[in-house]
């Protein structure tokens, strides 16, 4: 999952970890910058949808422009195109 | 039903099999009060979108997505509940002891006073312990009162009476406690008047 | 008070048909205002400090603003379509954020539980995927292809049908709903929710409808909508927190909440925060 926007990574990264934990999803954040956060998320597609939806709003000091999802080695995920 | 504890409002409910349960009064989905929800079987469901929770707090079902098995991590915080001698006890935080036994008495009624615990204690001339206090407003009338603060200004009074009390004793006890409430509320008003 | 971008928007402040020269005392975003219709038929809105506020009359209501509206009130072309019955439903006061009232109106997943046996019924609880977009030209949130099984979708419906909905948010406290019209396939019934923000946690909700239904008496149409909104009020007054969270850190949105999330994103983008809670708690 790649999150693009005006991201104050300081507040957003712990927020992402908390939200993933609440959804029971395992995550690994591989890149963070003020414009882009990349993470791998594993779990059922409905829950990954919920993760994407939560992150698209995020904390107030963050603006998420768009979120791209790419399936990783058949983990049961599928790509949904969502307008943002 | 809604109830208040020193750590905030809770939803108190009884499952179909008769077991009492308590959870935070806020659905983790969109914040609706769970005390407005409905009980089916062993689960409490939120009235807004029907998300249902087990007594242990884990989410069992999200009706908008019937194919999804909610993970264990979607849950509402719960409180330990014990029911004994006709009284439901809710633990605030980790319970360190069993609730006190109140043998030989039965619950009569509960009422809310617009007065702090201290004002009721002063009106009754007694000091409440974990098992409340015994109060004898007149001879042959032994009442046990349990006081639960409801915020800073209100107190919920649970009234218990000897289990062999006659109808006239029950009526007398009920009236005595109403009088106690009025006295305590007058004390409270005087104490807080400028 | 507020330097919120919402100050320059239009808000409903009364039903034109119910106003006369006796001023209606009400409030807008925490300020007292008075609304009157003068003898020659002009609506007039005055703020507590005697200032004349901007006015327009549209869709049965008088609209005003504490600021300087940059554009005309949004268009509802169906309002002028011949053959429609226009229904002034009246007012329902709700102790909640005006933004919460709109968000609830955008939600279909609650139908089986809140509007049981009218707008929804178990076991028909699943929310099928639908489309949501912000239309850039008009700067409006749209949800389309929203489908839901309904036991009695409208006063004019007999028996259960799968109803299709479209939602449109043209202003921060207004929502226009288009739904399948039982007597006229191919046309859409229009049901709107115009919300007057009295304070950040208190609002007057003014539903208004433009329907193809010449069979149902007006009072029945009004009662039907009022029943629905009173059911919604029992939810809206019992959500925590009372303001609308723009950070879902204490919530768990799902795909069924896509319209809600898009609405909140749109509010956040425009700094429409009167009635919003910025930090999750």
The profile of the biggest β sheet of chain B is: 4 strands, antiparallel
- CATH class (first level) name of chain A: Alpha Beta
Backbone CA Rg of chain A: 12 Å
Specify the CATH architecture of chain A: 2-Layer Sandwich
For the biggest β-sheet of chain B, the strand order reads 1-2-3-8
Task: Provide the structure class of chain B.
Answer: alpha+beta
Count of the separate structural domains of chain B: 2
List low-confidence stretches of chain A: 75-79
* Residue windows where pLDDT falls under 50 for at least 5 positions of chain B: none
Strand residue percentage of chain B: 35-45%
Write down the overall mean pLDDT of chain B.
Answer: 93
The radius of gyration over CA of chain B amounts to 20 Å
Identify the CATH class of the largest domain in chain B. Answer: Mainly Beta
Q: Give the count of structural domains of chain A.
A: 1
- The strands making up the biggest β-sheet of chain A line up spatially as 2-3-1-4
Quaternary organization = heterotrimer
Query: How large a portion of the residues of chain A is in β-strands, by DSSP E?
Result: 25-35%
The CATH topology of the largest domain in chain B: Rieske Iron-sulfur Protein
Structure description:
The complex is a heterotrimer of chains A (84), B (194) and C (281). Chain A has helices at 9-22, 45-57, and strands spanning 2-6, 26-32, 36-42, 63-68. With 84 residues, chain A is of the alpha+beta class. Chain A has a single domain (2-68), classed as Alpha-Beta Plaits (2-Layer Sandwich), CATH 3.30.70. A 4-stranded antiparallel β-sheet of chain A has the order 2-3-1-4, covered by helices on one side. In chain A, a hairpin with a 3-residue loop joins strand 2 (26-32) and strand 3. The longest helix of chain A is centred in the first third of the chain and has 14 residues, at 9-22. Chain B has 2 domains: 2-90, Rieske Iron-sulfur Protein; 105-192, Alpha-Beta Plaits (2-Layer Sandwich), CATH 3.30.70. The radius of gyration of chain B is 20 Å and the shape is elongated. In chain B, 34% of the residues are buried. Chain C has 2 domains: 1-73, N-terminal domain of TfIIb (Single Sheet); 77-277, Naphthalene 1,2-dioxygenase Alpha Subunit, Chain A, domain 1 (Alpha-Beta Complex), CATH 3.90.380.10. Chain C starts with 10 loop residues before the first strand and ends with a strand. The B-C interface holds B 25-26, 28-33, 36, 45-50, 62-66, 74 and C 109-110, 112-114, 122, 125-127, 234-235, 238-241, 245, 250-257.
């Amino acid at each position: 999952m790649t999150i693009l926007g005006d991201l104050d990574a300081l507040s957003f990264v712990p927020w992402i970890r908390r939200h993933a934990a609440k959804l029971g999803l395992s995550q690994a954040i591989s890149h963070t910058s003020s414009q882009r956060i990349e993470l791998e998320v594993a779990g059922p597609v409905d829950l990954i949808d919920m993760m994407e939806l939560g992150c698209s709003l995020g904390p107030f000091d963050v603006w998420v422009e768009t979120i791209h999802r790419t399936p990783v080695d058949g983990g049961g995920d599928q790509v949904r195109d969502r307008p943002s | 039903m809604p109830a208040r504890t020193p750590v905030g409002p809770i939803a108190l409910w009884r499952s179909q099999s008769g077991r009492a349960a308590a959870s935070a009064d806020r659905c983790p989905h969109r914040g609706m009060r769970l005390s407005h929800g409905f009980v089916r079987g062993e689960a409490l469901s939120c009235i807004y979108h029907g998300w249902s929770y087990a007594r242990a707090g884990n989410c069992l079902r999200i009706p908008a997505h019937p194919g999804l098995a909610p993970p264990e991590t979607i849950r509402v915080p719960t409180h330990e509940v014990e029911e004994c001698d006709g009284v439901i006890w809710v633990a605030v935080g980790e319970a360190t002891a069993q609730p006190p036994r109140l043998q030989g008495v039965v619950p009569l009624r509960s009422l809310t006073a617009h007065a702090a615990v201290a004002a009721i204690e002063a009106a009754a001339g007694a000091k409440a312990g974990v098992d409340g206090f015994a109060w004898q407003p007149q001879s042959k009338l032994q009442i046990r009162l349990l006081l639960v603060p409801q915020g800073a200004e209100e107190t919920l009074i649970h009234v218990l009476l000897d289990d062999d009390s006659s109808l006239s004793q029950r009526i007398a006890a009920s009236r005595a406690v109403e009088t106690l409430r009025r006295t305590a509320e007058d004390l409270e008003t005087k104490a807080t008047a400028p | 008070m507020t330097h919120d971008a919402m100050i320059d928007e239009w808000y409903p402040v009364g039903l034109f048909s119910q106003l006369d020269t006796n001023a209606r005392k009400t409030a807008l975003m925490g300020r007292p205002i008075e609304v009157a219709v003068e003898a020659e038929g002009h609506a007039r809105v005055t703020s507590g400090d005697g200032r004349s506020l901007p006015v327009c009359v549209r869709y049965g209501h008088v609209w005003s603003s504490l600021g300087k509206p940059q554009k005309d009130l949004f268009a509802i072309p169906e309002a002028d379509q011949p053959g429609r019955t226009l229904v002034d439903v009246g007012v329902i006061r709700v102790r909640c954020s005006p933004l919460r009232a709109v968000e609830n109106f955008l939600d279909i997943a609650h139908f089986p539980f809140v509007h049981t046996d009218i707008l929804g019924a178990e076991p028909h609880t699943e929310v099928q995927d639908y489309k949501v977009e912000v239309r850039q030209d008009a700067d409006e949130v749209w949800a389309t292809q929203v489908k839901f099984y309904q036991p009695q979708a409208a006063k004019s419906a007999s028996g259960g049908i799968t109803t299709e909905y479209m939602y449109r948010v043209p202003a921060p406290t207004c929502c226009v709903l288009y739904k399948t019209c039982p007597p006229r396939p191919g046309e859409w019934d229009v049901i709107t929710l115009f919300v007057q923000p009295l304070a950040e946690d208190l609002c007057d909700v003014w539903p208004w409808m433009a329907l193809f239904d010449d069979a149902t008496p007006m009072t029945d149409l009004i009662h039907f909508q009022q029943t629905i909104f009173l059911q919604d009020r029992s939810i809206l007054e019992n959500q925590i927190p009372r303001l609308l969270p723009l950070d879902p850190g204490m919530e768990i949105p799902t795909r069924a909440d896509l319209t809600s999330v898009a609405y909140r994103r749109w509010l956040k983008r425009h700094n429409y925060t009167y009635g919003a809670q910025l930090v999750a708690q």
